[in-house]
Amino acid sequence: YGIRVASFLVAWVLIMFPWKFATLQNQTMSPNDTLIWHNEPLESILHKLDANTTDGLSTSDAEARLLEYGRNVLSGKRQSGPIKRFLLQFHQPLLYILIGSTVVTFVLGEWIDASVIFGVVFINAVVGFIQEGNALKAIDALGKTLVTESTVVRNGERIRIASSEIVPGDLVWLQSGDKVPADLRLYQCKDLQVAESSLTGESMPVQKSVHIVPTDTPLAERTNMTYASTLVTYGQAYGIALETGDRTEVGRISQLIATADNIQTPLTKAIAKFSNFLLVVILGFAAASIAIELWRGKPIVDSFLAAVALA
After folding, report:
1. C-alpha span between 94 and 98 (Å, rounded)
2. How far apart are CA 87 and CA 83, in angstroms?
3. Per-residue model confidence as pLDDT tens digits over 246-261
4. Number of other CB atoms surrounding residue 74 within 10 Å
5. Residues 6+ apart with CB under 8 A from 181
6. Which of 12, 51, 124, 249 has minimal CB crowding within 10 Å?
7. Are 86 and 124 in contact (CB under 8 A)?
8. How many Cβ atoms are within 10 Å of 250's Cβ, its own excluded?
9. Containing H/E element for 68?
10. Separation CA 261–CA 90 (nearest Å)
């Protein structure tokens, strides 16, 4: 029983190294990807978006564009179902060894050993499933950062609507304390300052203007643009919505993260290398244990059980 308890504790420590795999998701593209908004004349933008700076969009036009472009929210990463996520918890090389050991010890009639090993595998899967579920909830909460209220001009009147209903061509009114709901091109501006640290990393608020900037201007220096998820800290402005949802700059970042391969940092590379080395060592010691026990004349069943305990 001491060996069984020790093997339980050792196996529990060893299999806590997570082996996760990222899934791929297609990036949503905008029909206006070729446009350079910060270098386009305002008249050209209004023409391409079929918009104006007087009355804004009509209710019917806004509804039609909402159907065409979709809601102004981040779609997030497509998630696997709970059953698949739970089964993937068993997709680890060390667990394959333990599962195989469980099957063999069960066939040999060693119920206690089989139960202990299966308990290690099952508890690990449950803990991993719960942790992954909590992480997915956090990601979903992050994807709802655009869900606020904003002031827009519709039918010639300023009204408050959910930011998720903003569409390209909407006239958006910004003032101090507002979260920018979409990527906007400014056309009226009064001492507007925007904190863009969530997008560019710049710690200080950026002074905005309505002047056209060169084509090759970096995103952090495009003073005639404001971007979704940034925060207005001072001043007032009108802007015309250019991109919404996954087509915004923050949406593109979210999509790039979703489509990226599993990121390998120096630490995760070292852990993966150590795990592979550990796997070889475990199998080597188990094989050596069986060979020594057989050489000493022990029964094959006892030799195998000793190797399982060592593993």
Report:
1. 7
2. 6
3. 899 988 887 777 666 6
4. 25
5. 72, 146, 148, 150, 163, 166, 172, 228, 241
6. 12
7. no
8. 21
9. helix 59-69
10. 21
